[in-house]
Amino acid sequence: SARAEILGSQGMIVTGEKSGHPPQPGYVARSRKGITNSNIIIGSGFDFKNAKGLMQHADAAIVGTSISTKTGGVLIPAKVRKLMKVVREIRKEAKNSL
Question: With contact defined as beta carbons under 8 Å apart, do 27 and 14 qualify?
Fold first, then answer.
C-alpha cells in the first residue's frame, strides 16, 4: 500500500474476501497506517450496518448491491435513505471532532 502511494496512486480500494463481503474494519485500519496521502475506498459489502466501523478509517465507499434489488439493479429509495442517514451522522461526528 505504501508502495502504491510512492508510485503516485491517488487511492486504494479495500475489499472483503469475496464480492459483496465487506473488509474487516481492522484491515481497513491497517491499510490507513500504510496510506497517509491517498484515499482509502471501501470497495465491497458497504451497508448501513457496517458503515460506521468501516468509515472510521476510510474516505469513501463504492455502494451498489446493498441499496438495490440486485447487482446492477434498480435502487431502492428506502435503502438509499437509510444508508445516507448513517453516512450523514458519521460526517457530522467527524466534523464535530475537529
Answer: yes
Distant-in-sequence, close-in-space partners of 17: CB < 8 Å, separation ≥ 6: none
- Please enumerate in sequence order all residues whose Cβ is within 8 A of that of 53, keeping only pairs 6 or more positions apart, or say none: 25
Q: How open is the CA angle 45-46-48, to the nearest 5 degrees?
A: 130
Question: For every residue of the chain, which 3-state class applies, written as one string?
Answer: CHHHHHCCCCEEEECCCCCCCCCCHHHHHHHHHHCCCCEEEECCCCCCCCHHHHHCCCCEECCCHHHECCCCCCECHHHHHHHHHHHHHHHHHHHHCC
- Per-residue pLDDT of 11-23, as tens digits, reads 889 999 988 899 9
How many Cα atoms sit within 13 Å of 17 on the Cβ side? 1
- Chain centroid to CA 17: 15
* pLDDT, tens digit, 9 for 90 and up, residues 55-74: 988 999 999 889 998 888 89
